[in-house]
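Table S5 (text form). Sequence records supplied for joint modeling of the two-component complex.
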Amino acid sequence: MNPRTNTGFWIGFVVVVTALAVVPLGLPEFWRKFLTEILIWGLLAMSSDILIGYTGMVSFGHSAFFGLGLYGAAAALLVLRSPNLWIALAVGLAAAAVVAMFVAYFATRLRDIYFAITTLVFSQIFYVIIFTWTDVTGGENGLYFTQPPFTIPGIFSIRFSTVSLHWFVLAIVALSYLALRRITQSPFGMVLQSIRENEPRTRAIGYHVERYKIVAVLLSGLFAGLSGTLYAIQHRFAAPDFVFFTVSGEVVIYNVMGGMGTLVGPVVGAAFFLLLREGLSRFWAEYYLIPLGIAFTLMVIFMPQGLLGFLKRRVNQ
Amino acid sequence: MFEQILVQTVNGLVNGMVLALVASGLTLIFGIMDVVNFAHGDLVMLGAFTGAVTVAHTGNFWLGLLVASLVIAAFGALLQITTLRPLIGRDPLTTIIATFGISLVLQKYALWQFGPTAQNIPQPIPGRFELFYLQYPWYRLGAAVMAGAIIGALYLFLKYGKYGIWIRATTQDRVMASAMGIPVPWVHTGVFAIGSAMAAASGVLFAPLAAVTQTMGFDFTLRAFIVVVVGGMGNLGGSILAALFISLLEAYASLVVSPSQAVIVSFVALILTLLFRPTGLFVPTPK
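The corresponding C-alpha cell record, covering 604 residues in total, follows.
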C-alpha cells in the first residue's frame, strides 16, 4: 500500500461521494428515492461480500439479517410514542446482531455447501416465524409506521425530506464502506482471506479459524441489519417478503454481477441489477428475470470476477 | 387422538416417499458430480407442468408421467452440457450459484409459459377407502408405491445394470474410471438426466395431491436439501430414510401447530443433525 495509490483512492472516494450527494438535487423525486434505495441495497451487498468475497462462505440467508434489522427498527418506531431515529437504528442493529450471533454459532462448525444450506434454512425459519406470528408482526400484511425525524439529541429535530434522507443514507453507507474497507485490509481481514484460500493451512499456521468465522458472520450480519433499518426508515413499512429467500438470492446476484471480494463491486452490481430491473420490468413485468438469470448464469461460468473485475482486467491490458 | 396419529403416520409416509424420490435424484447428482443442484425443485415443477399439459391433452396419467420424465431428462442433459460441464473442477459453491441462476430462469419461464393460475392433474386412481374417520383416497397410497418402485428400479439399475456400474465406478474414483475407458463426462450428463427424470416423475406423482404452481419448486428444493443433509450427502439409502423421518416429523407436528409452522420442525432437525452428526443421521460414524 504505497502513499500514491492511497491518495488516488481518497480522491476517487471524495469524487464519488460528492457526485452521489449532488446528483439527486437535479433528479426528479422518483429517481432520487431510487438512488437512495440503490445505496441501501448496496450496503446489504457489501455486507455479504465480507462472507462471499473475503472469507469464501456463500450466505444464502442474508435476508434474515436484513429482515430482522427491518423489523427491529419497525418495532422501535411502533412502540415508542415519539419515534426516534437513533433508537430505531440501535434496536434494528441489536435484533440483527442477535440473529447473527445465532447463525455465527453454527457457522463455526460448517463449511462450504453446508454453510450455504444452513444459512438458507435459518432465513426460512425467521421467515416462517414472521409470516405466521400475525399478532406481533402483522403477518402477511406487514407493519406500517411513521418516519422518525432526524434529531441530534438536545439540539434540534427536523423532518426528513427526500434529499436530506438521501444524504443521511449516503453518509451511513459511505462510513460503512470505509469501515469495511479498513476491516478487510487489516490483519484480521487478511486472515479471513487466507481462510478463503486455504482453510486447513490457516488452521495449521495457528489461527483459530472458528473465531475468525464467528466475527466475520457477526460483522456481516450487523452491516446487513444496518441496511435493513435504513430501508425501514426510507419506506416506512416492513413486510415478510423482505425476509424471504428472494432477497438473499438477489444479494448473491449483486455480488456475482459486480465482482466478489471488491466491496465496491457488489454496490455496482446492486445498481446494475436494480436499474436493469427498473428498465426491463416496464416492458416484461416479472419476465425480466429470464434474460437476467441467463446473463447471471453465463457470468458465473465465464466471468467469475464480475463486471468490475472484468473492467479492471480490460483497463490493465 | 390415537386415530389422528395413525392418519398422520400414513400421510407422513406418503409425502415422505414422494420427497424421497426428489431427494434421491438430488443426492445421486451430488454424489457423483459434487454439484448441489439448486434448480432441482424447479425441475420437479417443470415436470409437474409437462405432466399436466400431457394429461390435459391425452387424458392418460401414465402417459403424462412417461412424457414428463423423458422431456425433463432430455432437458436436464442439455442443461448439464451447457452450464455444468464448463464448471467441472470448480468449487461446489460455484455450482450452487450457477444452478440458482438456472432456477430463477426456470421459474419465470414456467410463469410465462403456463401462467400464474394453479393447474391440476385429476387423480388417476379413483376411489377411496375408509381410514378411521375419513375417506382416504387410494391414489395417495398409489403415489407412494410408485415412488418406491422408481427408487427400487434405480437401486437395481445402479447395482446390476452395466451403466449403473459405470456410475458407481465414477462415484468411487473419477480418474480411475476414466482410465478404465468409462466416458466420465457422459456419465455425468447421464446421471444429471436420470436425476432430472426422477424429479419430473415426483412432480407428476405429486400433482394430483396438490396444485401445480410455478413457485412450488423452491419449497421442494429446500426440503430436498434438508433431507439430503440429514441423510448424509450422496447417500441414497440415508436420503430415503431421512425423507420419511422428516415427513413423519412434520406430519406429527401439524397435529399441534398449523402446517405452515410445522416446517420449522424439519429445520430444527437439520440444525441438530449438523451439530451432532454433520455427516448425516443414517450413515455409520466415520472412524
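Note: The beta strands of chain A are 143-144, 150-152, 156-158, 237-238.
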